[in-house]
Every structure is written in structure tokens, then in C-alpha cells.
Amino acid sequence: MGVNTMPVSTGEAFEVLLHGWEAQRSGGMMVSWMLHGRPGIGKTEIVQQLAERTGSMLFDLRLTTIEPQDLRGLPYYDHASQKTVWYRPEDLPDDPERPAILFLDELTAAAPNLQPTVYGLLQERRVGRHRLPPSAFIVAAGNRVEDGAVAYEMGTALSDRLIHLNLRADAPDWLLRYALPQGLHPTVIAFIRTRPDLLETTEEALRRGQMIACTPRSWARVSTILQQVSDRRMRDVMVAGTVGEAAAAEFALIADDIAATVQVTELLAARDSARTRLYPATMHGLTALIYGLVAMADAQTLPEIIEIMAEIRHLGRRRDEEVFLRMPLAELSGYGFEILIQKALDNGWQHVFLQSRAYQAYAAERRAAGLE
Length: 372
What we know:
Layout (H helix, E strand, L loop, with lengths): L6 E3 H16 L6 E5 L6 H12 L2 E6 L5 H5 L1 E5 L4 E5 L12 E6 L9 H10 L1 E2 L2 E2 L4 E7 L13 H4 L2 E7 L2 H9 L6 H9 L7 H6 L8 H13 L3 H12 L1 H17 L2 H6 L2 H5 L6 H14 L5 H11 L2 H4 L3 H4 L3 H19 L2 H6 L1 H12 L4
Parallel strand pairs: 1-10, 2-9, 2-10, 3-6, 6-9
Antiparallel strand pairs: 4-5, 7-8
């Protein structure tokens, strides 16, 4: 059964949930949400980011690992009242003052005998006599049957209790909203920017009968491998076991190019002609350099990084090499400034741009070209 709603990126899904959370806090909308998406697309990360953004306590229940009594609680016979009393589990929100997110993960893989208990949480916000406080925001998540994951078809009685979000992998969204803020390795970021089709390949892997596919989660794991494993042979084996042999082979070629040419620390320390010679002479290298510069940007390094970003657009003139004349240097510089300015705004460093002569010259050049 298909999820017949418009697909949204993970970043868009986060914004929708944030608006839903704010609407619930204002007392105007008390609903439950469902995130559909392939394995590794980032469903769990969205909910974790929402909890961090809203200051909510996160109650993360993996429904494939619990039984109905784990939600319903256990009975205890009260001799004084001659009634059965239910001791509810501790991992359900109960504080009416503190905001909380109840995350029901792997909902579509949960055993069918658990679903009636989950219905009460999603629709009536209660299990037995325990009612969730108004401060609890409910989000469920799961894979679809066609994703090749363990999943059951969702019945209409359950689907009618939810607002559904159908997640899709989107490379630009993932790079800006996840990879950069999380500090993923610049080589991974540069590779996905130039090969966005390899961010998520689950459908293709299923069609070919292959076990391993590229996913946003697997590329985050590749970043960790690059940061932690120095032995080239061991690293290549690990990357192939994470994203598959074909993608790993292509990634290795670009990784070698970037490792040999990108020298972010040296660029920051160099000046004038010495710095000009350090710029990589490939698109992959320059792309990785831009992301590496943004990752290293702070209040102290930002003035030098602005100068370097502005110089990129003139490398064809400063480096008398034909390869630079074939590159879209102005576009690269503009894109670099776009994400660098956003980081500066997020951290309150915008005054550095106002004080930078290099940025003033860059902005004046764009105005003269009619780009601003």
C-alpha cells in the first residue's frame, strides 16, 4: 500500500514537525505524526534534532523489541480495594510541565498483537488508565514493505490516526541541514555534492538483488571511518562494506585526489603568492576545500576564510593554468559564501563580513554584474 502524500526532504519534515510541535504547545492541534522512509534516510535523526531544538525529553520506544505488557504495564492485586492495579512502565511521559517527545520507532515492523495497544497512544493518548500529558508530542516512524525491510502493511484503522510524512533523500538538503552541521568529513560532503545520485540507492540495490546500498546513514558512517582509520587498505574494505564495492571504488578515486591536494590548514597559514599555489586544481578538490573551510570557520579564522573564499573566483587569473579557466569558479565562490554566511548568521559573526575588505570587493563585483 503506497503512501499517497507528497514526498518531502528530511529538512522539510523537520520543519513540519517543528510547526506541529508549536501548534500543539499553543493548544490548537493535538495529533500524532508518522514518518515513512527507507532505512537510513534519517527518520531517527529528525526526531532527535526536534527534541534538541525544543528542549524536550525524548522517550524512544523501539516497538520491535517490546511486548504489549511493556506498554500496558503489569497487574498487581490490591487486597484493600479488591481491585487489580496496573503498574505502568516508566518510559512513558507523565510530567505535565516538561515538554516531551514520545517516539514510536519501527511502528510498521511491530508485531500485529502490539498494534491495538499502540492505537490508544496514537488516537486517545492513553494506555489503560494512564493518559499522556498535553506536553507530550507523539511521532511514529517506520519503513514500507517495498523498501526491503521487515514491515507489515499499515491498516486503515491505524493510518487514519496519523498525519503522514513521506521522506525522500535530497542531497542539497542533506548537505546543508545535516552533513555540515554534524561536521562530516569534507571528502564525503564533496563526493555527494558532485554525485548526488549516490546519496541513496536502496531502490537500485533491491532491483539488482544487492544487500548493500548507499544511504545518508551509511555516508555518515563513511565519514567516521575516514576520521578514525588511517590505514588505507583497512579503510577501503570498511567503506566497501558500508556503501558497496562500486560506490566505494568511485569514492576512493575522489578521496585520493582530495587527500593529495586539499590543504585547509596550510591555506589558512599562508599568504599572497604562497597561498595561491596551494589551491587544488580539480573540482572535487575545490569543493572539498570550500566545505573544509566552512567546517573550520570560527570567530578567529573567519577573516582569513573570507579572503580565501573571495580569491577562488579569480584563480583563473592568479594561476596561469588552463584547468582553472574551465571551472565555474564564480559559482563555487558564490556557493561557498552562501553557506559561510549562513554559519556566520547562526553564530552571530555577521559583523566580520561587514569589516572584511575582501567581502566588500566581492559584493561590489556582484552588484556590478547585476547579481545582487
